[in-house]
Amino acid sequence: MAPDPLVRVTGLRKTFGTRRVLDGVALDVRAGEAVALLGPNGAGKTTLLKILATLVRPTRGAAAIGGQDCARRPEDVRRLIGLVAHGAHVYEDLTALENLRFWAALWGLRLPASDLAAALADVELERHAGERVRTFSEGMRRRLSLARFVFARPRVLLLDEPFAGLDQRARKWLEEYLQAFKAGGGAIVMATHSFGRELAIADRLAILVAGRIALDTPRAALTSDDVQRLYALHTENGS
Amino acid sequence: MTRVLGWLAVVALLAGLAVGFGVAPREVTQGNVQRIMYVHVPSVLVAYLAFAVVFVASVAYLARRAEAADRIAHASAEVGVLFTGITIATGSIWGKPTWGTWWTWDARLTSVAILFVMYLGYLLLRGMVEDRERGARYAAVLGIVAALNVPLVHFSVVWWRTLHQPPSLLKPGTPTIASAILAALLVNVLAHALLYAYFLAKRVRILRREQEASA
Amino acid sequence: MTYARRAWAVVWKDLLVERRSKETLNALFFFSLLLLFVFQFTLGPDRERLAAVLPGLLWLGFILSGLLGLGRTFLVERENDCWEGLLLAPGDKSAIYVGKLAGNLLLMLVVEAVLVAMFVVFFNVDVGGVWPGLALVIVLGTIGFAAVGTLFAAMTAQVRARELLFPVLLLPVQVPILLATVKATEAVLLGEPLAAVADWLKLLVAADLIYVVVGVLTFEFVLEG
């Protein structure tokens, strides 16, 4: 029997004011699996990620990570997740090392300097440890953001457009990083609206249109052209 | 149910008027002006009641996240602000012939005025936060801070300045007002409390309809 | 222990950012100086008239610079969505409040000390013999002011009309602190013993306790975003 999915979403609905952003979303993600959420802007991808990240409470339905309900037991969920969203959660006026030291302390961890240095080395930022984030490229910020998870050890990564604004080298690095994360038994939910190479790390594609999952399918058999065709088919019908 | 409450409030208010003007005697020193007390005192008591309800509902909301508690807090704050406004207006009308001025920085008028702006701010906050869930949370926090602030405001303002007649109703010991006046006051307190309950029930229902329509 | 270390991390981070950006402190010093000009111009050169309203002016200065300074508390958390990071770090969220409050307290006390020094220089106020009492009143008043200010700053940081809403919410709630501190400052400057204002000091202590406890208990609901 397969183990329970790490991420389980059922009948999820979220309204902001009179606008229904999510309307009955269901999604399971197992350990070692990555799901790419595709969809046009405003389809609800970010909202779904935020509900999984305990940042937004659903209006109806439930989202759970590791068996813990995101709305009812947010603290337990927070120990299991790592979120990389549009903001990298780093302070511009602090150096890379200072940022890491702050987040480690706030997580209640008491880490020796060597551990912090190792975390930076893990994301290939060791040469920039003493530089302020203000001078960092987009890719470096994202890597610094991920460096926090070296010591926080999440089981689920929630990524919102993780490849946006990255150069070729940074993309390649991130792909390898995410593959390694999956191989280590982690689950990934990744929102994106491009069909580039990043889809290669996804095991499944879920197309979100107007707050509903229009299609949830394994990716392996699909070529890039297939994905584009499916996407066009569903987004045009749905919206 | 709400309708019954409404009619009860109407009947009680009419009875209050009748007793206040018909039965209660003309007060010796102040004359007819004193009769405004039958509105002034009940309004302020009901306003305090309303803000106490805001406090309890706010705590309940944060503990349970029940939208019903949030609606009660919201509605009660609105009705409380209304009655606070009535208190200030009637106090002012009473002050003109009695003290010769519409407004003095008398201790109790001042502390009611501070309550008024504090809870106006509460309603302003609710209006300015777009996301309903967030607005409810923020308002609950403010509702708790504001309610706990009420005694602090009271003591600080009383020590700061006091011109007002000492409280005439709630003082322990020998009753100092004529029993007919006291009776008129009590009838009016009951009438205002019923009116508060009616407004609250009505407003809660409207809020629920609004929220259902948008969910 | 972990709680204190987490609170300290927030203080350390905020002080470091402030030292690097120098955004808040420099502007507040300058603002205080300008306030002094404004007070002088609006009240005229009459020293006696000034002396009579001095305690009020002093606290007006504290409140105005406090409104500006406290209102900025959480702006740094909006850059790169650090706010979310604070919320997602597992553990008691009130440690963040305590850290922010401590940082604000430090910031405000520094600005207030400078403001008092400027009053001494420009308005010829004599605080020589009364400074311990004055310091006590200022510290007690500032704790209460910063406790509510920090909580409300978090509450308004994400709202559109932040600059407007923050003072509108904070000022009415601060009336007890304001009355108590102005009265106590008045007495202290007149050379009266602290015992003469014991009631006001007790009120300040009670207010400080209530505000800090409420802030600690409710902060997580505000941080939720």
Question: Could you outline the blueprint of secondary structure elements for this entry?
Answer:
The complex is a heterotrimer of chains A (239), B (215) and C (225).
Chain A: E1 7-16, E2 19-29, E3 34-38, H1 45-52, E4 60-65, E5 68-69, H2 74-78, E6 81-84, H3 96-106, H4 113-122, H5 138-152, E7 156-160, H6 168-183, E8 187-191, E9 204-209, E10 212-218, H7 224-238
Helix pairs in contact in A: 3-5, 4-5
Chain B: H1 2-23, H2 37-64, H3 67-99, H4 107-128, H5 132-160, H6 179-214
Chain C: H1 2-21, H2 24-43, H3 47-71, H4 82-88, H5 94-123, H6 131-156, H7 162-173, H8 175-189, H9 198-223
Helix pairs in contact in C: 1-5, 2-3, 2-5, 3-5, 3-6, 3-8, 5-6, 5-9, 6-7, 6-8, 6-9, 8-9
Characterise this structure.
- The complex is a heterotrimer of chains A (239), B (215) and C (225).
- Chain A has 239 residues and is of the alpha/beta class.
- Chain A has 2 domains: 7-80 and 154-238, P-loop containing nucleotide triphosphate hydrolases (Rossmann fold, 3-Layer(aba) Sandwich); 92-152.
- Chain A contains 7 helices and 10 strands.
- Chain A has a 6-stranded mixed β-sheet with strand order 6-7-8-3-9-10, with helices on both faces. In chain A, strands 2-1-4-5 form a 4-stranded antiparallel β-sheet.
- With 215 residues, chain B is mainly alpha-helical.
- In chain B, 79% of the residues lie in helices and 0% in strands.
- Chain B is globular and about 60 Å long.
- Chain B starts with a helix and ends with a helix.
- The relative contact order of chain B is 0.19.
- Chain C has one domain.
- Chains in contact: A-B, A-C, B-C.
- Chain A binds chain B through residues 15-18, 57, 59, and chain B through 65, 130-133, 213-215.
Quick one: how many beta strands of chain B? Answer: 0
Beta content of chain B: under 5%
Helical fraction of chain C equals over 70%
Low-confidence stretches of chain B: none
Q: Which radius of gyration of chain C do the C-alpha atoms yield? A: 18 Å
SSE pattern of chain C: HHHHHHHHH
C-alpha Rg of chain B, in Å? 19 Å
**Beta fraction of chain C:** under 5%
Q: Give the total of domains of chain C.
A: 1
> What is the chains' assembly state?
heterotrimer
